[in-house]
């Protein structure tokens, strides 16, 4: 009996010593556990990757299974109208209403702003007297017919070579017909500027007549061929229109034609119709809204004795106060240049 009790006491002491160690025992045990963990981590770090870990194919996304046409159409149909959520193209009726309302308001606002800007612009400028005039002063000069790149080349005996020039002149001078001028414009006799500034801004002003018959042999009335069938061609010169411009500052602007190179005998005699200057009574020009029937004055030039089968470079230019005819950058400022070659 005493031996059994002694054995039991020894077992309890051993169990108590194992479960409740002293402080030194706990410290040693913790150090052993920490050391074991460090050894495990070092083993993991130095352990090379397995071959299975290097197989990157297993990380790639798996291909999606192919869908049939019926499945795709079913998804499209569901996208267009989803009966479960009552949505059209992924949005509810409220969402679509808000979007349409927003864009309608936006475009109405933009249209109103654009209309207001246009109204302010039209209110601030005058259609009769523009704030900025893009026409240059002094004026330039144009001619008819122009030919192909201001080249007039023909044979007097070959009608097909000059017929286009005659048609161009006929069309150009059609508004100058005497009957048309008498119907639309008034007969002016004064050799001074025709000023009409006392009228209201929107009032229509009168225009002086310029009759086609005044061009004489270059009118196309006596000679329907304008001299081309005789080897004596005509051209028509016009000074560019400039709003409110008074050419010559009280003195008529005149015109001269000469060769760029060569003597005057090669070009021969030159005749001007009706005169070699622009009368002052056709100026100033008040614009197409006020000068409705305005007809620009012209000067017809007839070359009587051009040397045949010779390529000539001719320049006709303006002369007068405030006129510039020698601009190196603009050959049409104050004049016009063209080539002329007449064959038999």
UniProtKB/TrEMBL annotation:
- Which cellular component terms (GO) are annotated to the entry? nuclear inner membrane; sodium:potassium-exchanging ATPase complex
Q: Name one GO biological process term.
A: sodium ion transport
Give a single Pfam family match: Na_K-ATPase
UniProt membrane topology term: Single-pass type II membrane protein
Q: Annotated region Disordered: where?
A: 21-47
Classification via InterPro entries: Na/K_ATPase_sub_beta (IPR000402), Na/K_ATPase_sub_beta_sf (IPR038702)
Spell out the coiled coil positions from the record: none
Note whether Lipoprotein occurs among the keywords: no
Q: Which domain of life is it from?
A: Eukaryota
The record's subcellular location field reads: Membrane
Q: What are the entry keywords?
A: Ion transport, Membrane, Signal-anchor, Transmembrane, Transmembrane helix, Transport
Q: Where are the transmembrane segments?
A: 98-123
Describe its function: This is the non-catalytic component of the active enzyme, which catalyzes the hydrolysis of ATP coupled with the exchange of Na(+) and K(+) ions across the plasma membrane.
Q: Which family does it belong to?
A: Belongs to the X(+)/potassium ATPases subunit beta family.
Q: What is this protein called?
A: Sodium/potassium-transporting ATPase subunit beta
Native species: Anguilla anguilla
């Amino acid at each position: 009996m005493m031996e059994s009790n002694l054995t039991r006491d020894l077992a309890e002491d051993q169990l108590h010593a194992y479960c409740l160690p002293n402080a030194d025992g706990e410290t040693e045990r913790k150090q052993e556990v920490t050391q074991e963990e460090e050894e495990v981590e070092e083993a993991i770090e130095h352990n090379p990757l397995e071959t299975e870990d290097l197989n990157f194919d297993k990380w790639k996304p798996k291909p999606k299974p192919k869908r049939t046409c019926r499945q795709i159409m079913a998804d499209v149909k569901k996208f267009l109208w989803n009966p479960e959520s009552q949505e059209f193209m992924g949005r509810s009726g409220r969402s679509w209403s808000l979007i349409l309302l927003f864009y309608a308001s936006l475009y109405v606002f933009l249209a109103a702003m654009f209309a207001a800007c246009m109204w302010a612009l039209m209110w601030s400028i005058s259609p009769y007297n523009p704030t900025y005039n893009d026409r240059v002063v002094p004026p330039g000069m144009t001619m008819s017919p122009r030919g192909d790149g201001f080249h007039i080349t023909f044979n007097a005996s070959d009608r097909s070579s000059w017929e286009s020039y005659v048609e161009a002149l006929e069309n150009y001078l059609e508004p100058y017909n005497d009957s048309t001028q008498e119907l639309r414009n008034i007969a002016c006799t004064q050799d001074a500027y025709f000023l009409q500034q006392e009228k209201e801004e929107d009032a229509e002003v009168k225009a002086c007549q310029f009759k086609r018959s005044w061009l004489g042999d270059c009118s196309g009335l006596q000679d329907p061929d304008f001299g081309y069938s005789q080897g004596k061609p005509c051209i028509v010169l016009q000074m560019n229109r400039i709003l409110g411009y008074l050419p010559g500052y009280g003195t008529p602007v005149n015109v001269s034609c000469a060769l760029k190179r060569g003597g005057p005998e090669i070009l021969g005699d030159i005749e001007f119709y009706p005169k070699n200057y622009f009368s002052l009574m056709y100026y100033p020009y008040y614009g197409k809204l006020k000068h409705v029937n305005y007809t620009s004055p012209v000067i017809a030039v007839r070359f009587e004795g051009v040397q045949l089968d010779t390529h000539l470079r001719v320049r006709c230019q303006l002369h007068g106060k405030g006129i510039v005819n020698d601009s190196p950058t603009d050959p049409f400022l104050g004049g016009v240049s063209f080539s002329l070659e007449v064959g038999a």
